[in-house]
Amino acid sequence: MSTPFYVSPQQQMADRAEYARKGIARGRSLVVLQFADGIVFVGENPSRALHKFSEIYDRIGFAAAGKYNEYENLRIGGVRYADLRGYTYDRDDVTARGLANVYAQTLGTIFSSAAEKPYEVELVVAEVGETLEGDQLYRLPHDGSIVDEHGSVAVGGNAEQISSYLDQRHRDGMTLAEALKLAVQALSRDTNGSEREIPAERLEVAVLDRTRPQKRKFKRIGGRQLSRLLGAEGDGGAEETASEDAEDSE
What we know:
Elements: H1 9-25, E1 30-35, E2 38-44, E3 53-57, E4 60-66, H2 68-88, H3 96-112, E5 121-127, E6 136-140, E7 147-149, E8 152-155, H4 159-169, H5 176-187, E9 203-209, E10 218-221, H6 223-231, H7 236-249
Helix pairs in contact: 4-5, 6-7
């Protein structure tokens, strides 16, 4: 009788973590930045239908890198949780912290289960507050841990290098145009230090804008508005965004 093959629990967890990290690294990176009027999501995404960023609830946005089918299941579950909690209790009871805890439990259970492979996803849950100090950013790696972030966060293939670049250059009170340009500059840097150009049509951009008069603060940015923001200087980009927001609400 042959001796059963034994793998220590520590080695098993390390192997599962490595498997998940390699899967996430194959995807394109994305960044989430705070700016003066809210939170902006920026990522390279040539698809117009398969979104990396989505609205979860009134003031809450969702960003994900990794396998689309896996993070789409998590997104749908988050929307259901938010809708049920808001309907059962109150809309103000739906928070990014509560949603992050739900995602952490789900990811942690899957990661520690020997019956299925770990999810190859990394999530960001963001909530825009009434003021800059009230904004919340939570990063959730594949193992279900929760990291409370401030200012900027990057996930995906080249996240470490991008995070380092953002930490050195991001500052509080940036305009939307400034934050968007910084995000594109960070995403444009390759692992070898060289830079490449990412055209506007290959970018997916969304914002949680605290200045919007509507209850729902999530809005996608694209087309001519995105091109103007990428070419804007100073506060002009923020003014143009505000004017287009007003047109949307009419």
